């Protein structure tokens, strides 16, 4: 079959983008042809992929999206395909990969009522309805149970159109047999002694991921503990506001901002604790990447994958409503308790060996290709 994958932006380090790439490759490996429509493509084009960068521009995102949709639909009319798979909400999809939360729910609960009179609201509401309305036929790939009841509440989407996928952690995130050696090499490379402690935060979208909370927690540590603790941040975002926060808090020398990169597994092996105090998060793939690497995790309960941390007993889930003082104290306690971190490490690796945390691309391909058992 000829498949069309549609997403607004591709770059190698985004979670949605990595899922798209792995799903598309599985489909290709099963003998199907891949065409991609996007506004921005960063990085190499896989062999055999046909990538079309759509040449449209606009002053606003919603107007750009509309022009993009019109261009894609016109091209598909002339060059038809067997399936259209979208990774952003838009009209005309046969299958939608639901990485984003319910827009209508957020608009009604988190926004001023006047917001719903804006053109931006109307655009995103219409595009979401084009996927979830009961009269539509779009099959929906869900990566979290959290959002399903919200979509059903606002759109009365038939339940049989939802397909819950297992997580899709890449095998290279699992702790290798020589993990201890790799950890020592990593820490030597970055000048970390045996007594030093490394906090890690991974993810583009620093504001949503709660980076301000992590910086505040580092700054709150007792002097002796703070002096031997570093925070490394990996992600593709504008760091200026957070660099200012770090300088104001007197911890800028202990923080490293690193751009998106493809050697994240080394950091997961070399760190002592992953911080993920997100304000909202549909899933949180990095939580499971840390889990399978044996890295303990502190995460807020708003993240869709936070329950895996509880089930594995490999970290601590911070409850809502979030309290910075409680988070600060939890970070301190965990950094001071070597035994609990070792226990969480062992629990994580045991859970990674027995749970299905890996088959998302294959199960998504089953739905896309109509191969569900």
What does this molecule look like?
- The protein has 373 residues and is of the alpha/beta class.
- It has 2 domains: 2-166 and 358-368, 3-Layer(aba) Sandwich (Rossmann fold); 171-354, Rossmann fold (3-Layer(aba) Sandwich).
- Helix content is 43%, strand content 17%.
- It has helices spanning 15-29, 61-78, 103-109, 119-132, 148-155, 179-189, 211-220, 223-227, 240-249, 264-270, 285-293, 306-312, 324-336, 338-354, 360-368, and strands spanning 2-6, 9-10, 33-38, 40-41, 49-53, 83-86, 95-98, 139-142, 162-164, 197-202, 229-234, 255-258, 273-276, 297-300, 315-318.
- Helix 12 (306-312) links the parallel strand 14 and strand 15.
Question: What are the low-pLDDT stretches, counting only 5+ consecutive residues below 50?
Answer: none
Distance between the termini: 19 Å
- The gross shape turns out to be globular
Q: What is the number of strand segments?
A: 15
Q: Provide the CATH architecture of the largest domain.
A: 3-Layer(aba) Sandwich
| CATH fold field value of the largest domain | Rossmann fold
Mean pLDDT: 95
- Largest sheet, spatial ordering of strands: 5-3-1-6-7-8-9
Number of separate structural domains? 2
According to CATH, what is the class of the largest domain? Alpha Beta
The major β-sheet equals: 7 strands, parallel
């Amino acid at each position: 079959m000829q498949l069309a994958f549609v997403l607004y932006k591709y770059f190698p380090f985004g979670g949605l983008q990595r899922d798209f790439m792995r799903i598309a490759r599985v489909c290709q490996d099963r003998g199907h042809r891949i065409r991609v429509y996007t506004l921005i493509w960063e990085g190499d084009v896989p062999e055999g992929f046909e990538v079309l960068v759509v040449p449209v521009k606009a002053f606003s995102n919603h107007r750009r999206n509309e022009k993009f949709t019109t261009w894609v639909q016109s091209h598909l009319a002339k060059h038809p395909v067997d399936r259209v798979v979208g990774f952003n909400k838009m009209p005309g999809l046969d299958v939608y990969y639901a990485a984003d939360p319910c827009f209508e729910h957020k608009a009604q609960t988190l926004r001023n009522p006047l917001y719903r009179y804006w053109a931006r609201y109307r655009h995103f509401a219409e595009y979401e309805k084009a996927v979830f309305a009961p009269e539509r036929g779009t099959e929906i790939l869900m990566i979290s149970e959290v959002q399903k009841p919200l979509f059903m509440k606002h759109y009365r989407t038939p339940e049989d159109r939802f397909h819950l996928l297992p997580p899709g952690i890449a095998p290279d995130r699992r702790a290798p047999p020589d993990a201890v050696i790799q950890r020592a090499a990593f820490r030597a490379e970055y000048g970390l002694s045996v007594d030093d402690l490394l906090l890690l935060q991974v993810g583009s979208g620093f504001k949503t991921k709660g980076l301000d909370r992590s910086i505040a927690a580092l700054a709150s540590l007792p002097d002796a503990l703070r002096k031997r603790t570093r925070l490394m941040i990996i992600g593709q975002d504008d760091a200026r506001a957070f660099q200012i926060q770090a300088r104001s808090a007197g911890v800028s020398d202990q923080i490293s901002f690193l751009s998106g990169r493809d050697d994240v597994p080394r950091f997961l092996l070399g760190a002592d604790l992953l911080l993920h105090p997100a304000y909202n998060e549909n899933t949180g793939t990095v939580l499971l990447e840390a889990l399978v690497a044996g890295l303990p995790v502190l995460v807020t309960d708003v993240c869709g994958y936070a329950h895996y941390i509880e089930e594995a007993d490999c970290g601590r889930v911070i409850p809502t409503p979030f309290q910075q003082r409680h988070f600060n104290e939890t970070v301190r306690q965990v950094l001071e308790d070597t035994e609990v971190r070792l226990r969480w490490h062992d629990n994580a690796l045991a859970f990674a060996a027995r749970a299905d945390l890996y088959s998302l691309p294959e199960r998504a391909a089953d739905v896309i290709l109509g191969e569900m058992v």
